[in-house]
Amino acid sequence: MKFPFIKKVVLYCLSLILLSLFLYGCNSTEIDSLEDVDNGQKQENPQSTNVENDSPEEKSQEEIYIPNESDVVFKNNALSNKDILDNFVEVAGENNESQIRVVKYQTKGVIIYDLESEYDSNANVGWIMVKPDLSYYKPTENEVQDVIFNNASQQCAYMSIDEEEGFYKLNECRTHWEYRLLPIVNDTFSNEEIEDLDQTNE
After folding, report:
1. Would residue 174 count as lying in a domain?
2. S-S: 136 plus which of 4, 49, 110, 123, CB 3.0-4.6 Å?
3. Where do the segments described as Disordered lie (predicted)?
4. Domain region containing 46
């Protein structure tokens, strides 16, 4: 009579042991999976933090254009290398090949124009290739005329100085009959003086 009771007790104990082992095994796999997820997140986070650690100063440095010594720069109603610009206006679109870079500072950034005078001796035709660069500029919504002109490279027939309207102009272009490139100003400066020009205007 005692043996069946003992068997029941032994079976009951064995079932409890097996159940506890099963639950322990499930719990350990869940912990391992959670640790794997945490490790994966920790591996991803350094990349995201590296991206977020780009300071505004570093971003602004990438967006700042530093003019070259020969660039024609218009800034704060003053002009550098005016003689280079005037010489280009005089000969561009005629029997020669030359080029200049015009850097135009505005409130929304800097617009860069690469102007290349080209000539086809066979056809005896000259023109000016205008290549705008808006990498350092953010146009506003109301700049319809400028956005159209600066949207892509285009050809113009020649440049002129309109004393009456007070502008250097690009003439007979693909998108415009005439385009006011720069105002005529009396104040001049050298490109080495750009930082001093900023300080005097602050």
Report:
1. yes
2. 110
3. 36-61
4. 1-53
